[in-house]
Amino acid sequence: MVERTADGSAGDADYGPIGQAYAGYRRPDPEIAVAIETALGDARAVLNVGAGTGSYEPPDRTVTAVEPSAAMRAHRPAELPKAVDATAENLPFADDSFDAAMSTFSVHQWQDLGAGLAELRRVTRGPVVILTCDPTRLDQFWLADYAPEVIDTEARRYPSLSRLADGLGGRTTSTIVPIPLACTDGFNEAYYGRPEGLLDARARLSCSAWSFVGPDVHERFAAELQRDLEAGVWDERHNGLRRQAHFDGSLVLVVAEP
């Protein structure tokens, strides 16, 4: 049985407090949205598992959202359908109920990854589309120099691409998704060329990995980054990132066809 917090969160992070900042900082990015919608193909009935506040749910399709966190469900925009209170490991739907399924920044939260992937495949006739991060690519991001504890936390939590492929079966592809410079979805790497953004404590709150490190890490990170920005050290080390249109980091799209 999947254990859940008072908020209903079913993963390793409590989205009760995280959800308070999430909707304001984790807004769907248009370029990433295009990649997801393209991967969904011509599917009309789409399941979104770990749906959160509804990011990347395509507006021109019939979407059924599943989200265990009460805080995240409460912050879904009024124009989106209400989310079903359930977990990935126990989806309350019949076999082959949906044309396609999607999950964005969610699989690393599931208590039983294998069970969750098997459930996605069970209820989906067509492609399963997962937006996630490749843990082997996380240390390419400059945050590793300032808060290696956060990078290490993410690397432990995100499943390998091979685990996802094995769990979904069928024909699986993994493609790097370029992150745009003005990315509106505030995961850590979204700030690759705008480091000042991560000095905002609420921006860090909206990235669950920061909830696993103590106040000392937050304080050290902010002090060291602020110092290096003021002294021009960050710009010397990362020359050009402020003008680089895209960053090929750890963001990947995994697509499994049955």
TrEMBL record:
Gene3D superfamilies, alphabetized: Vaccinia Virus protein VP39
Name of one Pfam family that matches: Methyltransf_11
Residues of the Methyltransferase type domain: 47-125
Keywords, in A-Z order: Methyltransferase, Transferase
Domain of life the protein comes from: Bacteria
Coiled coil stretches, renumbered: none
GO MF term set: S-adenosylmethionine-dependent methyltransferase activity
InterPro entries: Methyltransf_11 (IPR013216), SAM-dependent_MTases_sf (IPR029063)
Any one of the GO BP annotations: methylation
Protein name: SAM-dependent methyltransferase
Organism: Spelaeicoccus albus
Upper classification of the organism: Bacteria, Bacillati, Actinomycetota, Actinomycetes, Micrococcales
